[in-house]
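note to self: dont lose this again. the chain is below, predicted strucutre after it. 211 aa total, dont forget to put it in the shared folder this time
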Amino acid sequence: MTDSAENKIRIMVIDDHHIVRRGLVALINMESDMAVIAEGADGREAVDLFRQHQPDVVLMDLRLPVLGGADATRSIREEFPAARIIAVTTYDGDEDIYRALQAGACGYILKDMFSEELLSAIRAAHAGRRWVPPVVAERLAARIGSPELTARELEVLELVAKANSNREIAAALSISEATVKTHINNILGKLGVTDRSKAVKIALQRGLIHI
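---
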């Protein structure tokens, strides 16, 4: 830690987009009570850097190479239960929000939110408070109240999204076409839609699948 970081909120920024990461670093370092002490570009690096620096607050992008942001958050929190990690992402699907918070994130910020909100989230996390904007909280509440898709149903849905037929899905997963049809019917029921295309649209919007 440098002298300039003394008595400041020590922050680590993890984002695989260099321009975005540098923008966040510049914004934070303009604040008199904050200092970025480490930055990285993938989830595995985030875990290693946390061990090395043990920052006060981490800004963690969710879509990261090598190891995803939610998994990196979970790994850090398992080793350092007091770690304060804010998920920062361009995506606002309720499943993304749910996974990040389940992994141990103490806050969730969208990249298109005003800088004041990001800075407020950092200060809240440092003070031990959770930070979930109202629009994000609404999506999370909707997610908690809806039935969950099983791991197999998510596999089927991802293959449906890639325009695979029932026969192709059956071959890929080594199951029968009848079983595929059963899974698809269950998926449609849980998502409250009547056809495959609507199911894919809803799943992408909610962050259940990513293609």
